[in-house]
């Protein structure tokens, strides 16, 4: 039997332990890595190329949506299963647009997580019943979500928004992304103009409203 390699991404140790115990109770499944931040998850996935990534959305340094985009770019054979406490139509739509093919609420994990991983291991999508109703009709019909301002910013701008909203300086943000301070300053100016923000406080509010950081 081919071993199924799984990576768990969550910044709460108790959640990681519970998910690991549940998944490793299945024959042939192995949790090959754990990550506590989105950036760590991207680095590990690029190196390990796991079959399944079980991803929380509220993560420090890089949120789960943007981590998902980067993981699937670097490891296109991986499948991402979002495991979150958040329940909203907009968020579920953004999860699917990021490339994840599974969405399970933490409240449903006992009943649905194993089934979801089974499904994704066969490259088939899985949505819990709590999510399916409000996703299917709307997600298939909508071809343009430009009115939602979170779609206005680029993935790199979203990274910068998160780091700045978490209190990082321009220098710290530049170091985290491997770019120059001038590049961060240019992106920051573009972000403020594009979103019509006047202060860092406005930037933090935007990041919280669009689930880029957790309140």
Layout: helices, strands, pairs:
Elements: E1 4-9, H1 13-24, E2 29-35, H2 38-48, E3 52-55, H3 64-74, E4 79-84, H4 89-98, E5 102-105, H5 109-121, E6 126-127, H6 129-141, H7 155-165, H8 170-177, H9 181-194, H10 200-209
Helix pairs in contact: 2-3, 7-10, 8-9
What does this structure look like?
β5, α5 and β6 form a beta-alpha-beta unit. 36% of the residues are buried. This protein has helices at 13-24, 38-48, 64-74, 89-98, 109-121, 129-141, 155-165, 170-177, 181-194, 200-209, and strands at residues 4-9, 29-35, 52-55, 79-84, 102-105, 126-127. The N and C termini lie far apart (44 Å). It has 10 helices and 6 strands. Residues 142-149 have low confidence and may be disordered. The longest helix has 14 residues, at 181-194. With 215 residues, it is an alpha/beta fold.
One letter per element, helices H and strands E, the order comes to EHEHEHEHEHEHHHHH
Number of helices: 10
- Assign an overall shape: globular
Question: Could you give the order of strands across the largest sheet?
Answer: 2-1-3-4-5-6
Structural class of the helices, strands and pairings?
alpha/beta
- Helix content class: 40-55%
Question: Would you kindly provide a brief summary of this structure?
Answer:
With 215 residues, the protein is α/β, with parallel strands linked by helices. It is built from ten helices and six strands; from the N terminus they run βαβαβαβαβαβααααα.
